Amino acid sequence: MSQFSRTINSAPASPEEEIYRTEPDGFGIFREYARRPRTDPEAGDSLESVSDAPGLDKPTEQDVPKYSSIAWITRAVAITVNPTSSTPDYGPFKNASQFRLMDYFYGRSDTKSLDALDDLIAVIRSPGFSPDDLEGFSARTAEHALDVWVSPSGIFSAQDGWHESSVEVSLPKTGAKYKSEEDAPKFPVVGLIHRKLLPLIKSIIQDTASRFSHAYHWFPHRKFWSPPGPGSCTSFPTEATPSTGTSSASTQSSSSTSSSAKTPSQPERASPPCPIRVYTDCYNSNAMLEADAAIRMKPRVPGDAPGVEYVILPLLLWSDATLLSNFGSASLWPIYLYFGSLSKYVRGRPTEFAAHHLAYIPGLPDALKDFYMATYGRSPSKDTLKFCKREIFQQVWLQLLDAEFMEAYEHGILLTCGDGVIRRVFPRIFTYSADYPEKVLIAAMKPLARCLCPRCLMPKDKVAEAGSKADDQRRRNCKRQDTKTLQANVQRARKNLFKGFSINGTHVTNWTDAESLTPIQSAFSARLSPFGVNFYEILAPDLMHEFELGVWKGVFTHLMRMLAAKGDDAVEEFNSRMRRMPTFGRDRIRRFWHDVSSRKRLAARDYEAFLITIMPAFEGLLDLRDDETVADLLFELANWHALAKLRLHTAVTLDIFRAATSHMYKAIRRFAETTCPRYATKELPSEAAARVRRAKTASTNTEQSTTRKATAFTVHHTYKFHSLGDYPEYIERSGTTDNFNTQVGELEHRHVKRFYARTNRVAYELQIARKERKRSLLASIRQRDSFRPLSAQKQEKKRAKIALAEARGRSTQRPHPPAQIRSRALSPTPPHEHYAVSKSHRQTVDLYQWLGDNQGDPAVADFMPLLFEHVVRRLLGREAEPEEGFSEDQLHGVQILNHRLYRHSTIRINYTSYDMRREQDTINPRTHADIMVLSPDNDSNPYWFARVISIFHANVRYVGPGATRATQKWQRIDFVWVRWFERDTSYPAGFQHRRLPRLHFVDATDPDYAPFGFVDPDDIIRGAYLIPGFEHGSTTDLLGPSKLARRLIDDGDDDDDYCYHYVCMFVEHDVYMRHLGGGVGHRGVGIDVDTSRQHASRISRRGAHKRRSEGGARVANTAQPLLGEDSEEGATGSEHEDDAEDGADGRASRHLDFGDGSEANGGENRTNNDSRSGSIDGDEDGESKSEEHEDEDDEQHESESDEREDHGDEEDIDDGMRSDDDKRDDDADPESGDEDVYVDTVYAAEGFAPL
What we know:
- The protein is 31% helix and 14% strand.
- It has 35 helices and 33 strands.
- Strands 17, 18, 19, 22, 23, 24, 25, 26, 27, 28 and 31 form an eleven-stranded antiparallel β-sheet that branches. The chain has a seven-stranded mixed β-sheet with strand order 4-5-12-11-8-14-13. A six-stranded antiparallel β-sheet has the order 1-2-3-6-7-15.
- The model is unreliable at 1-15, 59-86, 231-271, 802-823, 1103-1168 and 1171-1251 (pLDDT under 50).
């Protein structure tokens, strides 16, 4: 047995069931299985497989043992590797030359370029390529060979192929009576391009050549996390790496003199806390566990050997219509199939080609109208055409869910899987991801009707009560159920339809309107209900359309209307602030070059970026009372969105998510009832223009006015608003949202659009299907060919040049740095290292000459003393520093070789994310210069922030008092020169106050503080995203003119600084979890789990607290609000009423923790960073008492036109094919003051104790 192997121990959970439990890994993660797994798809995981950042080095095959995982079970369940053949199989091609030429043709883009020519030359010059091999070769022959080639088995077998079929639609007519539906005229709809579902499943599962053949999780499991106990960690832990969950470098005591390993040994744990359930993927979700338990209870099929495993294959479905080009009306309606047993980190990448194209649904042909006219002597009505569109969709799925598939659904199918294990596989439809129009089709229901939700029977007039106790009860008690009574009602309505009754007549609607159904039985109901399946449960929430392009888009649009009602000055100020917004990461936050308020056809990623950055940009643009309400709203929306998009949830974060959902709903209602009525909002110019266009399309005879109409805020009356309350429970059921977000399917649209460009644009559906098969075949052969295309090689080189691109930045506000100090590309960084700095000596700094040249710059005033302190501390260890600091003799013992420093343009920081992936930040003093480090033990806040001025290395030694033989040797140390921030203690911030933490630079004129210092790169956690406080303006009081301290491109001036910066907690999932706390991959560093629970509560004020400094510029109030500032504010009242008892400037006197993580942070891990002194602790004042629940009787004033403002016309929804613009959009992607304080006790029973 290997020294790294782990043993599975069985521990009976009950007299009836035995549990197989793995040992916890370095992160405290372990699994529980109901059956002992034969193989583990993660047994061969390496650091490569969890390293997502492009700047991380990918180990070669020879490096795999160094990186390989030791996190899981035993060698007995380790995977086996397929033997590789010495002679590659090139499929339909005779040799490598022919294959590489065709692979080049299909692998390149459709436009000729110099890069494409270089690719071709590389193919011709590749080893093994011979022109003689092309004897008799022609492109058409090779194309035909790809079309007709059949593999003996696997994905390209004869059974698995594309078919062209038709479906029949029965045509009803009012007044035309038929004995039964069978007697009614039927119209054949041709053009259904599809693959048979069961042969597709068999070919994929049995494919031994697939790189995914050993990657399937056949047995579901419960995943648990044993978090570090509070107070158990007393020092900075070693950097844990994914896969192993253990230290990636050798550990040493803090007195070590080695510069290559500065981290102390891993802290010992106290008694382990109770394990916490973890949700990540389909195969550790409740639905998968329930399905597995069901098949284990089934009797075994006679004849199956005892060793045959009975397993579930979860099928994840996506469908959505898309436009294939920017011009014209060519569209495609594909159905994509994914296997939930495959990790989401694989199937979520379009480049992995894990999506299987199942079918392309035909639209309603125009010929149907001719057939209807010829049959009935009149044109079909609009309602009839709607019926036919819905019917086509159901008939397609009835054909896909054929008898062969349903036989396998009931009894399973015996397969020898790609890993060589014989299993009886039971396919199960797990989720169906679609936008609202598509969900309506699947559920065979009426859109935007009385019961507008496809998962529950929530009345439309109760939607605005979302988040209330009554709403929660309705969601639990009014779930849609596919009962026999419902099916019988649908059949009666359908029977009456073909007896000649009107489709909207009472003989039909009396049977269907109670649940807003149509006289059509869903194909999923017809096929799955005999097995006790409630198909409504597979309809997954859609984060992209329901929130990013739904609720948040609606809120953002109305905020722009409110600014327009204030006047143009407010709009222009907002646009100006957004243009000055700094960037973050490689492309997480991009530059907003254009006016944000007027941009059209934005993708979901654009609205996501607006949500992340909008709080500082919107601050102060409205009157104080409304500004506070909007700030609360924006925080709650960003917080909800961050929780919804987490790739790893725990039971704790899900409880926080439920509380956040309630807070978000309350914030939206408060905004709608107290703030919106004050503004006479009208359509934006772009909205008015779009309305006119839609009207012209609908009717050419109606003249539409371009005058902007009055527009009210109606988001809280829509289905998308209602749907947000379903997310926490659905994550428990099916895994995190990245398993079923429609964004996955939208990304796959890229491939069919490329295929379309290679067709002749006539009957292109079948051509696209064939090209999809060719692409899959070529990709399969490419795995066996040793040649790597030049484009792939260039892509890898591009990853190595990311640092260069980031060094140059994306702004043209300042010229690029001189050529001699421009960044040079770093080589890819080994993922097990915490940071990487170039080894270059090109940018040499003669220390004393440089100090002389910058003698008048305040940044270098204490440069040498601070540097010497840092070096002594690094070489002797932090514990060697006396309380009074190092003596002069000790500082004089520092020697710098040749008095030279070496400057570098970038430093890469590798870190383990909350979901145990390996990620990377690039820190650049000119573009992305802000960092976060752990604060020392005596600080009440978990993190300190700094701005990097320069990155250096130097060769140093120490020969002073206490020197050892090791310290007297020359050694290289890397260090970062920074300018420190400190938090604004007068500003209540964090989750409980609904505000971003606010910082300002340390005052350089205060002798008790050191504004500059040096940081060991090993102490940098990762990059930080700090947004200027635009509303508060700039100041010259903190530091005099300094070109050295103000190198950041976004600063814009050498003479002043922004008065404040805000810490953007929402910029990225890992950043968010570091502020929320409880990140699994963070291993208790920063904010622990117990503290994170407090972030579910909110502290509210019964006074309007002015949060702005005296110097902040305000935009003049140019619009008269509809309601006076002293008027009544609505049914629920406001938490921000004016209070004459506030302090002189309205600031809150209490000092709360930074990010709400301080009060329960005792014993947390800290790093002592240099050159920052003075106490910044404070006490929290004020009484806490329970918040009374608000009255949530909302006035319902929603109309059908208001709903369609959010969803589009009903006809488009029925069609499942949205307008062209919609489809393109989806694809494009504190001095004191008295205050009454009370704590929101929502979910207090769940363990969220108030502070």
